[in-house]
Amino acid sequence: MSDDRISVRNLVKSYPTAEGTVEVLRGIDLDIMTGERLAIVGASGAGKSTLMHILGGLDRPTDGRVCYSGQNIWALPEAGIDSFRNRTIGFVFQFHQLLPEFTALENVMMPMLVGGSGRREARENAERLLREVGLGHRLGHKPGQLSGGEQQRVAIARALVMEPKVLLADEPTGNLDSTTSESVWRLLEQVHERYQLTMIIVTHSETLAGRMDRIVRMADGRILP
Ligand SMILES: Nc1ncnc2c1ncn2[C@@H]1O[C@H](COP(=O)(O)OP(=O)(O)OP(=O)(O)O)[C@@H](O)[C@H]1O
């Protein structure tokens, strides 16, 4: 089966706290088609980031399933989840989370080196991607020597270097001014078209969400009908 559809069933996430159990996700059901561009919107605290983290294999649900091509990733052993995540998912966060002491090129090479690729192959791929995102002239710059928009472009190149099938972006332009945000958003759209990725983006912007194929609205740990 080469169907990469994502299907989420009865996803629940709760945390025990001193004041009792906090229910952050209260039974999420969601199907995301291969190649779809999905926006997730909702008020602060609705559970959007939590859902993204569970979809991406970063945070374990309390209950429920997240199936990629019919395989529930949360039924895999820990090493299986790590390997699934490295092979399948690219992440872009609001705060790029680049390593400050490494250059743009090294930051983009990093996932390949960690995954066991040789330096030469990692370097070639990272250079190609940095050129694609318009940063061929900034390979040797460290994050602190780049603008916010450039840093986010490096983060997008890094998210793509392992050739993921799914790109998860949590407020990727939330920290940028409107012009820079527009150019990063356009880059995400180009990337989607070029690589035929499934793309799930959390955003507070209704305008940006409206450019996606579908909008899912969350409130209080549920998806609104
Ligand atoms: N470790 C934790 N323990 C208890 N509650 C938590 C924990 N982590 C998150 N929460 C709660 O889960 C809820 C949802 O958080 P989440 O970050 O998923 O929301 P969000 O919709 O992404 O919000 P925002 O738009 O502000 O980023 C929040 O009310 C938060 O306080």
UniProtKB/TrEMBL annotation:
Q: What is the lineage of its organism?
A: Bacteria, Pseudomonadati, Thermodesulfobacteriota, Desulfuromonadia, Desulfuromonadales
What is the protein name given in its UniProt record?
Lipoprotein-releasing system ATP-binding protein
Q: Which GO terms describe its molecular function?
A: ATP binding; ATP hydrolysis activity; transmembrane transporter activity
Q: Which InterPro entries match?
A: AAA+_ATPase, ABC_transporter-like_ATP-bd, ABC_transporter-like_CS, ABC_transpr_LolD-like, MacB-like_ATP-bd, P-loop_NTPase
Pfam families xrefs: ABC_tran
GO BP term (any one): protein localization to outer membrane
Family indicated by similarity = Belongs to the ABC transporter superfamily.
Q: What SMART domains does the record point to?
A: AAA
Task: Report the superkingdom from the record.
Answer: Bacteria
What range(s) does the ABC transporter domain occupy? 6-224
Q: Identify the GO cellular component terms for this protein.
A: plasma membrane
Xref: PANTHER family: IMPORT ATP-BINDING PROTEIN, LIPOPROTEIN-RELEASING SYSTEM ATP-BINDING PROTEIN LOLD
Keywords carried by this UniProt record: ATP-binding, Cell membrane, Lipoprotein, Membrane, Nucleotide-binding, Translocase, Transport
Matches recorded under SUPFAM superfamilies: P-loop containing nucleoside triphosphate hydrolases
Q: Which organism is it from?
A: Geothermobacter ehrlichii
N-terminal signal peptide: none
| Entries under PROSITE patterns matching the protein | ABC_TRANSPORTER_1, ABC_TRANSPORTER_2
